[in-house]
Amino acid sequence: MDKFYLTTAIIYVNALPHVGHALEMIGTDALARYKRLTGYDVYFLTGTDENSLNAERRSRELGLPPQQYVNQMADTIQSVWRKLNISNDGFVRTTAERHVATCQAFFERVRANGDIYKGTYEGWYCTSCEAFRAEEELVDGCCPYHPGKKVEWLHEENYFFRLSRYQEPLLRHIEAHPEFIEPEIRRNEIVNFIKSGLQDFSVSRSSMRWGIPVPGDPSQVIYVWFDALLNYITGVGYADDPAMFARYWPADLHVVGKDITRFHAIYWPAMLMSAGVALPKRVFGHGFVYQKGERMSKSLGNVVEPGAIADEFGPDPLRYYLLREVPFDRDGDFAWPTFVQRYNADLGNDLGNLLNRTLSMINRYFGGQVPEPQRADWETNFGDRSLIELSGQTVAAMEQHFNALDFDEALVAIWQFVGRANKYVEENAPWTLNKTDRARLGTVLYDLAESLRLIAHFVWPVIPTTAERMAEQLAVPLEVRGNWPEVSAWGRLAPGTRVTPQPVPLFPRIVPASADKYWRGDIDEEGKRV
Ligand code: MSP
User: Fold this and answer.
1) Atom 30, ligand 1: residue with shortest CA distance
2) Strand 294-295 relative to strand 289-291: parallel, antiparallel, unpaired?
3) Ligand 1 atom closest to the CA of 264, numbered from 1
């Protein structure tokens, strides 16, 4: 079985996740599920970035020991991911022993290869990015990515990583493997940045005590980005499980936000080249979710709380909304009226009603048992053929769009099939057929039930709870661990299957209400209402 190892960025722990972080998790989760569905041995890793200055400062503000604070936050963050039904296989916390072992072993290896030396560094530092910012990037003395956040002048003696040595090898690698950085706009940015000249960067801090000690020099801790990037190899056993490492590394895909693509497409591959470890195959820099055109962020305070939305509606409406509404490679908006509209129209009317009316008709006309199709007229009947052919085209479109992380396009294709099935009901008017042609009625209802079996599998990567509920009501198994060519082929549904006698609506209509209660404005950083 082919493996597929994919990761998200690991989130900082100084605040709760917002809808922007949720987009990254949900998109990566949808792809992980799609790969499992189509037969891959998937390993999906995420985690928490706990050795940052932000975390330490926040713990001090709260009067808590840093380790206690990051433990609490790591738990809270994982509980939000569980609410969103994120199916990660592994979770790396960067304060964990096994990650410390990875960092120190890796640091030693890079040092042994001659790429670490001692030098002095000074410059403007943004503690939200945990990165130095060039003077010309600053906006009124603030970080360009964190408006209102003053940068600080740091002057230190540090260990440096010889990034400059990797300028040419990186350019050659990107040229030979254009898929290494996607989408193209991010690739162009990275290539221009590399061509403008790479400078060595400092990989330790002497002013901090919170972090992973530099091996052999406990007066310094390893720079948080050097440490954080290594989570991707910690998670598959770099330091403690050679068999797992051989199986899953290199990563097939790192999913990260556009603001941190540079770390993943420049620092990270250079670090790996230096250590003689294979490079990841692909880095995808997704867009940002904005709210009223403004970037959503913890420091701006304009943040919608994904856990609260999931508490009220379950995970699927938010999962569907974000992946349908925000093209993954571009930016998008979180807008409450559109959320309500997508819920009622796409989920409630198109999908929910199709299931409901089909199950009701099977109950009403065939005593709850899926009838046998009588396909005498199938060669000539355009309606059947176009429905069946569209199911195959949907399978092909999903393969293309999921692999390209075009989740919105994948959903458009699936909903075209849902729409075709709804039209099939109108075209065939089963309520009339019941009086005129019972054989034909049986074929039509079989086709609708089989379409719904397929749709349950098609939507599973994005709205897994709904898929389960659909399969349960249809009384079919949800087959989501491979065997895809058979599972996705038309005609697998056995006639005679006894569907539920009491169909339950999947998405009861919601009324457009104010989104105010989901705004993070009324929640403090520990998630308490204020
Ligand atoms: N800790 C670093 C990542 C280290 S990875 C080795 C970090 N953390 S973060 O908490 O600031 O962001 C986590 C992820 O969420 C990043 O990929 C970031 O780009 C993404 N997003 C943060 N805000 C976002 C939006 N408003 N919209 C979409 N994604 C957003 O960076």
Assistant:
1) 20
2) antiparallel
3) 6
